[in-house]
């Protein structure tokens, strides 16, 4: 896409956010998080993006103003004195802040904005332009659920890199190699293909660089990671993903590794084995493929997100695997999949309580997995685009148990 | 160290935090951030650590309770219903919360805790145990400034890995290789040595995986990164660190790359060149070494942190390089160095306004650098432990302009 087409892409995002403000009782958004700033401006420099419900947005940049000016698709202005932010907004948007009457409601991402900065910004808006700072994170997260063709293209680029890297690294996956050693090979291939180095997450205290490779008992370790298999990790201060445990013959090797290209992430999981899986684990792996096929049949516009989880849970139960589904014991994760885009943990979530229905343009990672303590984790994960005709897989690695 | 010695290490941390509470007007700390949770418990599982000013702390764990129980050096309890957190604390700490009179003041890390969670926790404490949630981040950051012998050992392990990785990757740094390609080689060496994958940062919107490699004009690009040289990056959504620009003969190659081992990070910078640097850049590099030597002479207990920056700025001015010091034009960073430990951006900061004096046990990265727009960045960075006798360098790579 040329710069003019990209400018239209970003103009459409702003327009969609503006349309959503009135129903949410918001008069403006003050975007503070680097990922949301990129989503709304096209640049990821330090500062704030003010989007009024009507009129032109402004990207107030602390640093680098030069770089934001070159990159952004919206108007850029130097932030100036943060202490005078309220006064600056009042001067730049007299119609928004000068109307009198009920307090102007400005939404920010209270799901990620640190409390100190929230309290400070709330005070600056109150005293400087009489506005109230409220939670606008749901509006932003909702708008980001539906991806444009451009965004789907970026996710596909990440999917291609992830698939190529796996193909190149698989010949090095041999008995006795440690999870860490093989992950270093896989990450090397990902990095050379432009992986940014991190798969950004929105949730507090959660972090992923490329995902996890876990074999046998190490994969089945419970973890703080909010997913079905966090992995053993390198120690108490790095308590997820790979460990220094050598990979052994006959144990399942869970390869839940994605990457981030141009800001967009892909998530995929494949299961491998050196030799042959024990019968009950091979059967559980086959069940994960069946659950994925069943989920695909429901990945249609109009299906409530929660239904995907409820059905998968019932199918796991039928297979006699409910106790192993998405973790074990009190550390079972209670979802089947999650939205993905600029962040790994986007909306919607395929979980109980998420009653929203699927819509064309949503992109979801679906990841049925089964955990066997002491033995390992088996499963599969694809990322799909929801289209009017059903799901289109964006992940490219062949779908099969990888036998080495 | 065996487990008993480690238990003493963690007991000493708790005791120091408890002693600091009364002077800060705090009755307890509620630790919420994963790094602070590790610092206070020895485990990094999801949950909260409650540390009363007097008595035994409790690590309330959401997941994984099993893993926290195996790892932590303090008492572990299941978190149970978050909605009843206040009631749980009141029941477990009747002397703290049942005394009546003035509201009990509980400190949390409001510098990192997201506003949504801050508002929710404040409400839960108010209604459940009549306590007030206030900012305790300064207390935690202050306590973490002074490192124990154990912590210094962890930082030294990271320093050794960083130095070894650089030695192994340097032979691959050749004319025409892109920054990204060579970074992939360097990161491969770091990862194999146990680099966790991320160098954790505390500041909102800031991220480092291993640092930056920047050659020529790409290194001198202004960036959102809160340091002297962020780098060009891979695009607007990854706007720092390496780019796809080939490295050329005769231009400065800034290698500002560290790693994280067992949770602790090291930061170091070396400058390399293929062939020979132009005279003015060679002279600026020599100035950066002189500034580092001058800073070393002041890295003594009792020196105010701000003095280090003020002196370095004066020395840069004497050398006719004030305009190039720590960045260029309106994107100059206004510090000379920073504390480092579990996070890259710890206290103290060597900057104006930071009037605290150096103390034995502090660990600081000192990084005089000079930026030449269109030409590159030159400089050097070591990490030092402050001892009663002066600074001890923890970084191990030879200090010289690396000529290839």
Automatic annotation (TrEMBL), chains A, B:
CDD domains the record matches: APP_MetAP
Pfam families hit by this protein: Creatinase_N, Peptidase_M24
Domain Creatinase N-terminal: 13-145
Matches recorded under InterPro entries: Creatin/AminoP/Spt16_N, Creatinase/aminopeptidase-like, Creatinase_N, Pept_M24, Peptidase_M24B
Keywords, in A-Z order: Aminopeptidase, Hydrolase, Protease
Ranges of residues in domain Peptidase M24: 154-387
MF-aspect GO terms: aminopeptidase activity
Gene3D superfamilies listed in its UniProt record: Creatinase/methionine aminopeptidase superfamily, Creatinase/prolidase N-terminal domain
Record's protein name: Aminopeptidase P family protein
